[in-house]
Amino acid sequence: MAHRCFLPFVLLLVACSFSMAAGQDTSDNKLLCMAEMVSNIENSCSRPDISGYYVALESLLKDYLKKCFHTNFTSNRALHTMLPDLGTDVTSYLKSLSDSFKDLEGIEVGPTFIPAAQINSEIEFELEHNLTNSHDGWILDPMGIGSIFNYDGFQDLTEVVRDPLVVNNVSTDVIHWAGVHPYFQNTSVYYDSTQRKFVVVVLPLDGNIKLLYYRRDVFDSYKLSVPRTWEEVVDVATKLQSLKLDLNDDGLADYGFCFDRRTDCHQGYFDLMSILAPYLQYNGSSQGVVFDPNTIRLTDKNPALVDNPAMTRALQLYSQLIALSPADTNVTDTCDVSGAAPADAGVSMAARFANGSCLMGVGLGSFFKAFNASAYRGQLGVALMPGSFEVLNRTSNQLVNCTAELCPFATHVPATNPAVTTSTLTDSTADAAAPAAANVSSSSASGNGSVLAASPSPPQLPPPPPPVATRWLNRAPFAAGGGWVAAVSARTPSDYRNLSIDFFAQLSSPEESWSRMLMAGSPFDPYRLEHFSNLSRWVEAGYLENDTTAYLGRANESFNHPNIVLDLRTPSTKTFRDIYESGLANLTSGSSVDSVVALMNASFAKLLLDPQQKALRTLLADTYLATINYNNIQFLNGTSSTDSKGGEGSPSWLPIAIVLPTVGALLLIAAGVVYEVRNTRKHKNLFGKVVPPGVGPDTTILVSEIQDFAQLAKSLPAEVVDRLLKDHHDCLRRLLLRHSGYEGSCEADSFVLAFHSPKDALLFAMEAQAALLQVVWPADVLALPACAPLYVQGIMSTAKPKALDDILDVGDEPIAPASASKMKGFSPAGLRSHDHSRANHFGSSGATLPSLVNVPATETYTFSNACRRAWKEASKDDPNKVLIFRGPRLRMGLHAGVHSEHDISHSKADGRTTYSGDTVVMARAVAQAAQGGTVLLSEETYKKLPLERLWDKYLVLHMGEHRLRDTLPNLNLYHALNRTLEGRLAYVGPISSLLQVDPGVLDAPVGCVTVAFMYVVGAQTLLSWNADVAQQAIKIFHTVVGDELKRRKGYLVEAVDGLFLAAFQRPSDAILWALECNEAMIKQDWPEDLLAHELCEELVISAPTKEGEVINTVVFRGLRLKTGVDTGQVLGEVHAMTGRMTYRGKVMNRAARIASTASTGQVLCSSDSWQLAMTADAQVMLSNKVSGTSLGQFRLKGVAEKIEIHHCRKVSNVAPARRASSLVMSMADHWKWEQHLSAHAGGGGGVGGGVGGVGGGAVGPEDILLGGDSLRGAMLSPRSFTRPGSFRQRKNSDTQLDAANAAHLGIELAPDEV
């Protein structure tokens, strides 16, 4: 970290020197100020700063100049806040507050309004991707607090709430923290283990608590007692239902209860927890209701409190109450409360209760506010949440009766509900005095939830007769959701953090809290002490006194209850809620209670017992235990809850915190830190709407279609098709705003969407593919084979695995491309050049499949086949299953770049923007080439993606070059895939194109692979001589050898400057490719300047035929090549940056060393390659006139074992008695060749001009065909295989070479080496 600290220290010293030179005060105070800032900089450098190094530096220097020199900075942008869209009235209020803040502070506030149900996801998205300079503060649903803790996103507000704020140089206690109810004071903090104290991270703006609401007039009329337990709730609701009342004269019988059965309203989780709470929690909040604190740290046990009689009882009660609730909606219906946060979506049932459709229900303050506008106002009854006489013994896993010892917070009540009805003890009198004081305690509660009225002279009632039998009643009020809170981003610059604090301090002030609270339609409920005690303020706002008294009394009593149940605030809270809601959806659709319990338990087990999720499990344990105050964690702060301000009368358990595990946070920070600055508005206007993307190279069009939709539509009833499309559309539209996407058009199953950047489009596509798996599709859809759920399981190869040491040369020197770090690369078809060093930077840069390591040594597969071997289909009961398909399969195509204004149309009638033109045509063609469940990218899209920031979550695979339509140019296509859905690779079909021009990664060989390294001889020399000419020549080289590679079905691994690295399934193809590339070099139209260079000049051999004619044969012309080939097992990986296959293994090192040893024009291969080629493809090799001469066994640099090397060349069909092609000679000594020719009959000519023969006979035309390869082979031999001053050839390797000829030519015949 020292290098990071150097710059700020230098700047600080410069600032100090400047101030002294300018004659500024250098008093002790100034020096102390400077010393403090030096310490702050040192501390900032000692730990990673998630907000980015330069953001931190800017913040420190601003603080330094402000504190030490009283220099203020003028903000040059608006304060950006992210706020939930909670309806017209609340949105208008928040906009008005933003405007007034500008008048107060002189800075504009730019609020972005997000649908309430999505705001947490938006915040987490910003923090996960480290999108700095985005929003300076947020209002959020507390269920996301745990996840935001993980990202270290919260600014510490402890000093803010304790010390008065300074606004316009005036000190004022804006927040008035002491006036916040102690419950909310303590649920706004978490324990900082590094500082060993609690820190405040959010400002409460709302207070949620579940209460039982009932019609007091109906209970009076029919002499019904207020239910104390959930079993009594069912009995009373059944009684009300049986009366078949129609008190609201709507022609329909009034329902006995109000439960919302629609999954889309997300009330199931809250309702189930309300019922379950008193059975599971009876020993205080630290006992918890979701996970067992005693087992949550045991990674081999499922800590979810699901598989027990308490859950069974709760599900039975829930099912009974659903049957007594409004039945005019279905489980799958869409909620009519659009965009609300889950906890606030209960307003639908609140409206039903207010209009008399149902006569009893549980809910938040929305029931009270809705009833205030009801025709029945004044008849509201409110009680604590029902309790239970039985609780779960977690040791025996059985329900047992409550006792004073077992249930310390229970109340002693008659065993049966006494004949005390609301006519004898009504809530109108009983609740009158409930809110008279802020510290109403549970000791004032009667058994039925009523509170005795206070009066100057309370009447003396005779004591009731002793009950026949009594029982202990356990209550556990449920703080569902917790209520909206405000938070300041820790990642924004310090001046904007301070402004954000000022803004939210104003919002949380007492007066502003009243403004929100008293709005009839707002979701904000009481959370300040004065909200519960100042009854007159409510009455002045139009609320009826009796109803308000009942509501405030029960709410305050609940918040003070020592057994209150806190809602989840851990990471993955939404996932856990979804498990419960999925189970309830099955329950209300007809599944049995036992099957639902099993389903939920299995879902938790799969998530929490996964060995790969140990980090999540540890983090979950830490945060969950802290939120329920397990093991009295508040005393780590050194004070008890009674020491806090405003905490008089609050129970000792109240300090509740969320511990941010230091190690886990640092790991997440290290993985998440990237350099990225997002558009400050995220391309949204002041109303949170996405601005349509305009003309520009980054504008990306995404076209999506359901595969085989026409056939699906024919196979399904019309109403099912409509439902399918609705669910499909809803899913995509919910995700669109998060990624700043704009809906250009939608026709049936097809969307045309526009995004401001390729990254936004890709992230949307990835999330959509995963989200579609979770949609509750109609059963008829899932019954179709094309839409049925498909589970897979990763498997290992059945072949005996090879040790990695057998595949990789761990100690060998790495092979790097020749001059890769110095030379600009050329790649065919626009392929990005890359080098091995980038792959090393990312480590395992792709999806390394088990089968790629364990392929038998002699077997070769394509990557596609290896994927099919790596996964097998699994049943839904398999604990290791992975769901990869479920429901209709969506294919998507992306293309970036809108270049004409004519391609964008704006409609004045509806304000919509639509897209057309070449970009849409291209995106649609790409989409139609994809298979279902596939996201295809054009090369223009791929080039603009910041893959270095996405590789850990997403795979991008090169799918080859394709011709999609006759009217479109050839395209390189890329397949983007979420790493959690890698199993889809086993089921991805081929690209639907007219022609595949170039193979993709799925065609790459894996297992036993033949590798060929081809080098341009003297490439660096040529580039130094004339870079422009050399680059032009190398470009021709890449084009030619690339075309030959396609013809031989090889796979391009790397192409950079003078290197071409290719892989083949068959060694015969590799050898023929190298030989044919040598031939092709001679035929190219090289620049004249290149041919004038000695490394590239034309070399011609003249030789007579048997008929006496002289034939001139071109041996070299243009770039010279040399190639090394080897075969062996490799470890294949998909490179994160290029999407292409990369290889590691001994074979790579051996092939590279063989190539570097070869002389100009030579194709050398290992004996493994040669023997396999002659065994598997002997006919192919013979028909192409390929021969190989063994040069012996040699020890190459970096290769441990000796390698036998063969020299491959093309020869004639007819061999003369003595052939020049049989000689293996030194490359440099052409004079030896000249002497050889002139010393025999017919000789006398020289190289390039004379005539020559071999051994007394003329050279036949068959000896100088094929580009002079026979003659080239005679002239060139690997110099590194010889000793200085001599030339060696294996004895008996050429039957035409006798001792006399060898001596004449200066060749030493060496014995065969073993």
Automatic annotation (TrEMBL):
Going by the UniProt record, its keywords in alphabetical order are: Signal
Q: Which CDD domains match?
A: CHD
Instruction: Give the GO terms filed under biological process for this record.
Output: cyclic nucleotide biosynthetic process; intracellular signal transduction
| InterPro entries in the cross-refs | A/G_cyclase, Adenylyl/Guanylyl_Cyclase_3/4, Nucleotide_cyclase
Question: What sequence ranges are listed for the domain Guanylate cyclase?
Answer: 700-758, 1010-1155
Disordered: annotated segments = 448-467
UniProt feature, compositional bias: Pro residues = 456-467
Hey, what's the signal peptide range on this chain? Answer: 1-23
Concerning SMART domains, the annotation shows: CYCc (SM00044)
Name of the protein this chain belongs to? Guanylate cyclase domain-containing protein
Q: Which organism is it from?
A: Astrephomene gubernaculifera
Q: What is the lineage of its organism?
A: Eukaryota, Viridiplantae, Chlorophyta, core chlorophytes, Chlorophyceae
